[in-house]
Amino acid sequence: xxxxxxxxxxxxxxxxxxxxxxxxxxxxxxxxxxxxxxxxxxxxxxxxxxxxxxxxxxxxxxxxxxxxxxxxxxxxxxxxxxxxxxxxxxxxxxxxxxxxxxxxxxxxxxxxxxxxxxxxxxxxxxxxxxxxxxxxxxxxxxxxxxxxxxxxxxxxxxxxxxxxxx
Length: 166
Fold this sequence. Notes:
The chain is mainly beta. Helix content is 3%, strand content 60%.
């Protein structure tokens, strides 16, 4: 039948072998408050695919992260604060060999901060900030409409705001 199949080289970013993920966290609760502090990570090898062979060298991604969450749940007020920091190292042997990246070694650093508040579980919202910085790579972050980069870099930052009435 037509269409792509899971091991077809038209698929993009096909995981090669296992991709172990780990997580540890500590949570403390008292009265109407809770606090979580944790760490997590992932190591994965993949084939770029997207029309390239699903054999030969692989790209390796190693992520390590820390996160925290504080929450207060009262009768009238609910508040949550979240923070995450992710450090990713990329070894792009397959992408360089396939002409999809210029650098074998790249790094990405991601920060996400969010605060949420609700009054009487009916009206509220959230405010968030995100920032991604990393290695410049003229092939990996090439200029393109909508999804491309203006400066061959993954660097971006922004704010997100949301208001809800339930």
